[in-house]
From TrEMBL:
Keywords: Membrane, Transmembrane, Transmembrane helix, Transport. The chain crosses the membrane at residues 12-35, 47-67, 74-93, 99-120, 141-160, 172-193, 232-253, 265-285, 297-315, 355-380, 386-408. Pfam families: ATG22. The keyword Transmembrane helix applies. Residues 1-410 form the Major facilitator superfamily (MFS) profile domain. Its main location: membrane. It is a multi-pass membrane protein. It is found in: Cell membrane. The keyword Nucleus does not apply. It comes from Cohnella yongneupensis. This is MFS transporter. InterPro entries: Atg22-like (IPR024671), ATG22/LtaA_families (IPR050495), MFS_dom (IPR020846), MFS_trans_sf (IPR036259). PANTHER family: AUTOPHAGY-RELATED PROTEIN 22.
Length: 418
């Protein structure tokens, strides 16, 4: 099914589908609803995110290894899409005081989202040849920004003007927004989830226990053999720093904005700005990666993140926050799409899901570093601005380490191992 326009379009639309979960539930509506309507706390929300991330990190390498052995990534993607979408629908039901229930449902939803993305990313190798991956990967992220942004914009209207839709208050609007995420995710995933992957007779007849045994065996091989691919290994280490920096900017942006006096409304508006600028910017970024080289563009994106962090140190008001949100939109999706396409080219044939699972595990395992640095600097300096400035270290390290990666050599290593 490689390089077929219909297949590529179906793959791209999945990003449109599941990004609704990232924007409405993970970033904008649910964090506020969790505190204001359910009665949770910032700490409780943080523990919920940590628990979900830990489970996804532990599951992803094993699930990836099993999916590679069975050559059945789409079946796993179907399962986790259903889990995530159903969890989104169920979030409409917890009420005041149902903090534990809400946390558990969010964790289940994030498992569906995070584990599903492991198989979605791995499918990039199956649907495209190496020369097209920058553009296709960027198209996916670009459509994700648009899809997630459109639904979030609609949900903001429902929440702020509930009477227009026959609802009593904004709480009802938030509940409707959670239902919309589940339905949106399911409906727009259908084109990709209807595809079928070819399996050998041995793979088809293998029992679940056998799949798990083989998956664990392949996982052990991954840990022991990954350093046999020096360029892949160097890129992964650079990616850990880059991912940690980007993740910290994403998860700390709202709390940082609040700490310097920006209200909730402008914070959500800033997220919408990032989404809608990210749509065309990510697509353009992918084309530039083809023209100038993916590594060069990835380094450029980290340089812009450095600028963003420095400007954030001096930020004073909502207008400044909007400007920074626009700058983030220019590079956030494009840099992640380019990193995904680079990584896909460095993987040995037949182990894409396994190695994507390994990357998910390691990047999430190390992702505590950025928020931890932010928190420690905040405590010792009593300054959120200085804490934000400290995150520049992660982008500097990512740029330096990336300069040592020889992508052409890494692609040859992957081909020789296949």
């Amino acid at each position: 099914m490689r390089d077929q326009p219909k297949t590529i379009k179906s793959w791209v639309m999945y990003d449109w589908a599941n990004s609704a979960f990232a924007t409405t539930i993970m970033a904008a509506v649910m964090p506020i609803y969790y505190i204001d309507a359910i009665g949770g706390t910032d700490a409780g929300w943080g523990f919920t995110q940590s628990a979900a991330g830990l489970v996804v990190a532990l599951l992803s390498p094993l699930l990836g290894a099993i999916a590679d052995h069975s050559n059945n990534k789409i079946s796993f993607l179907r399962a986790f899409t259903l889990i995530g979408a159903l969890a989104s629908l169920l979030l409409a039901f917890p009420g005041k005081g149902d903090v534990l229930l809400a946390s558990l449902i969010v964790i289940v939803g994030m498992i569906g989202f995070g584990a599903g993305n492991t198989f979605y990313d791995a499918l990039l190798n199956d649907i495209t040849s190496p020369g097209l991956r920058e553009k296709v990967s960027a198209r996916g992220f670009s459509m994700g920004y648009m899809g997630g942004g459109i639904l979030l914009a609609l949900n903001v209207v429902v929440i702020q003007k509930p009477e227009w839709f026959g609802l009593q208050d904004s709480t009802g609007g938030s509940q409707v927004s959670f239902l919309s995420v589940g339905l949106w995710w399911l409906i727009f995933s259908v084109p990709l989830l209807r595809l079928k992957q070819e399996k050998t007779a041995a793979q088809t007849s293998a029992k679940v226990g056998e799949q798990i045994r083989v998956g664990l065996s392949r996982l052990r091989e991954t840990f022991s053999r990954i350093r046999q691919y020096p360029e892949l290994w160097k890129f992964m280490v650079a990616y850990w720093f880059f991912f940690d920096g980007v993740n910290t900017v994403i998860v700390m942006a709202t709390s940082y904005g609040k700490s310097i006096g920006i209200e909730t409304g402008p914070l959500i508006t800033a997220l919408l700005i990032t989404q809608f600028i990210g749509f065309p910017a990510t697509y353009i970024f992918g084309n530039l990666a083809v023209k100038f080289g993916p590594r060069r563009m990835l380094v450029a994106s980290q340089a812009l993140y450095l600028v963003i962090v420095v400007l954030g140190y001096f930020m004073q008001n909502a207008t400044h926050f909007y400007i920074l949100a626009a700058l983030v939109g220019l590079v956030q999706g494009g840099s992640q799409a380019t990193a995904r396409s680079i990584y896909s080219k460095l993987l040995p044939e037949g182990r894409a899901a396994e190695f994507n699972g390994f990357l998910t595990f390691t990047s999430r395992f190390f992702s505590f570093g950025g928020p931890l640095v932010f928190a420690l600097v905040r405590i010792f300096t009593d300054s959120s601005r200085t804490a934000l400035l400290a995150i520049a270290f992660f982008f500097l390290m990512g740029m330096v380490l990336l300069s040592f990666v020889n992508l052409a050599k890494g692609e040859r290593e992957a081909l020789q191992a296949s």
